[in-house]
Design goal:
It catalyses: an L-aminoacyl-L-amino acid + H2O = 2 an L-alpha-amino acid. This is Dipeptidase. Belongs to the metallo-dependent hydrolases superfamily. Peptidase M19 family. By secondary structure, the protein is an alpha/beta fold. It folds into 2 domains: about 350 residues, Metal-dependent hydrolases (TIM Barrel, Alpha-Beta Barrel); about 25 residues, no CATH class. The chain contains 16 helices and 9 strands. Strands 1, 2, 3, 4, 5 and 6 form a 6-stranded parallel beta sheet that branches. It has a 3-stranded parallel beta sheet with strand order 7-8-9. It is globular, with a radius of gyration of 24 Å. The structure holds 2-acetamido-2-deoxy-beta-D-glucopyranose. The site of 2-acetamido-2-deoxy-beta-D-glucopyranose (NAG) has 4 residues, from α7.
């Protein structure tokens, strides 16, 4: 989500073949050692034969020799019909909130026949979209009079409205179930695409939406959210936002509670998104996280000096940790000096830069469609992804590199985040009970029984201040 505002402080938010061995070995307890050895032998032989006789064919199929390499449109169609293009960030749920107060069962919401905004049925299909992280976004709460951030503990409605964003995303996906398939894991995402559906996933666009509570975080995971952007355009209990630093504030990186948050995100299997955080928050998180991280919608700081974009050391460290950097389409970040001049070529430049610095295994696409008032020329809406891929091919990207960029990278990261969570949970790590130390606690004025001899004076005081 990016806000339509003239205030410069505003930051936009807005398969591989299975070998015989693998099949045999994965079947538990069916064979004796000698049978297993025999199977191993046959499997290995089969694999050798397959690699000698079949793999040239496989490779040829992958890179489609029948397609003229300079026919970029045909290559693009081939690649995007066999690998899902998965976008990291689309703000349609917030637009539905803004325009319709979450009411979609009416004549006004003409999703099927066309909308003026960036995303509708027709555009998604002509854009060959194969999967989408829908953003559950609620803005940072501001004081109406001063326009300052409200105190951290104040905005409990933020969590309510986040629940509404999750609810509308699920209802929207269910309402158009011939087009979408709701998923909460990477396996489902691949299957949805194989079944001709647009896999639909939920990401939350700000740690301020989590209610300062790791318990709430766990419940958001249970509701289906699979990434959280550590900050949006306000500091929160977890860390420093890029917007704070660009407004002259200090970059304090992650807080102590933010370190607990990173650990709990890893344990849950929720992807950590660093799209709006400060550079020190990026570096702290990359140092601490046991799982790869994502940027759901960002750009290269080397090309555009906006502080929410990732500098080269962060790009390299993200690659080192196996993560993915998904490039956004927001004009005023792509071309801070002349936003109106932004085009699809600027997006290509950012993708190319990340591919050169971090590698093709670590770049992807995260548009911010429907969350930004203006889009680059040539990338007006979700129907334009194929054009972006064609331009990357024109610049020299191979089909394999495009597959990684389009969807394989984010799916690999998601799988790895799932694996790390399984490992942490299998090791017996319990849910994290850490509390934000700025939390205020009150209880009702009732007089409950005492649990301990020293309860009086230690437990939560009543709201009148009586212990
Ligand atoms: C992944 O999601 C699908 C669809 O919701 C579900 O059936 C499956 O059990 C999930 N797999 C794992 C490993 O959680």
């Amino acid at each position: 989500m990016s806000s339509l505002s003239f205030n410069h402080n505003y930051f936009g938010c807005l398969g591989g073949a299975t070998t015989n061995q693998a099949l045999v070995l994965s079947r538990p307890g069916t064979s004796s050692t000698s049978r297993r050895t025999l199977f191993w032998g046959l499997g290995t032989l089969g694999a050798i034969i397959a690699s000698v006789f079949l793999s040239p064919l496989m490779i040829n199929q992958q890179s489609s020799p029948e397609i003229d390499p300079t026919d970029y449109a045909a290559r693009t169609r081939h690649v995007l019909s066999t690998t899902p293009l998965i976008d990291g960030h689309n703000d349609l749920p917030y637009l539905i909130r803004t325009e319709l107060k979450h009411q979609i069962y009416n004549d006004r919401f003409t999703f099927n026949t066309g909308l003026l905004s960036n995303t509708d049925r027709e555009k998604l299909r002509s854009g060959m979209v194969g999967g989408q992280f829908w953003s559950a976004y609620i803005h940072c709460p501001k004081d109406a009079a001063t326009k300052n951030d409200v105190p951290l503990e104040d905005p409990t409605w933020t969590l309510r409205d986040t629940l509404e964003q999750i609810d509308i995303t699920k209802r929207f996906v269910a309402e158009y179930s011939d087009l979408f398939h709701y998923c909460t894991n990477s396996t489902c995402a691949r299957e949805a695409f194989a079944n001709g559906k647009i896999g639909s996933f939920i990401g939350i666009e700000g740690g301020h939406q989590v209610g300062n509570s790791l318990a709430s975080l766990r419940q958001l995971y249970d509701l289906g959210a699979r990434y959280i952007t550590t900050t949006h355009n306000c500091d929160n209990v977890f860390g420093t936002a890029a917007s704070t630093v660009s407004a002259g504030g200090e970059d304090r990186g992650l807080t102590a509670f933010g370190e607990e948050y990173v650990a709990e995100m890893n344990r849950l299997g929720m992807m950590i998104d660093l799209s709006h955080v400060s550079h020190e928050t990026m570096r702290d998180t990359l140092r601490l996280s046991q799982a790869p991280i994502i940027f759901s919608h960002t750009g290269a700081y080397a090309l555009s000096k906006v502080l929410r974009f990732a500098p080269d050391d962060v790009l390299r460290e993200t690659a080192e940790k196996g993560g993915v950097v998904m490039i956004t389409f927001i004009n005023r970040f792509l071309r801070p000096d002349s936003p109106d001049a932004a085009t699809i070529h600027d997006v290509v430049d950012h993708i190319w830069h990340v591919a050169q610095v971090a590698g093709w295994d670590h770049v992807g696409v995260g548009s911010d469609f429907d969350g930004t008032p203006v889009t680059p020329r040539g990338l007006e809406d979700v129907s334009k992804y194929p054009r972006l891929v064609e331009l990357l091919m024109e610049r020299g990207a191979t089909d394999d590199q495009i597959r990684k960029f389009a969807g394989d990278n984010i799916l690999r990261v998601w799988e790895e985040v799932e694996r790390v969570a399984e490992r942490i949970q299998a090791s017996g790590t319990r849910p994290n009970e850490a509390l934000w130390d700025g939390r205020t606690w009150v209880r009702s004025e009732m007089s409950p029984p005492t649990m301990f001899r020293d309860s009086i004076g230690k437990r939560i005081p009543s709201y009148l201040g009586q212990p």
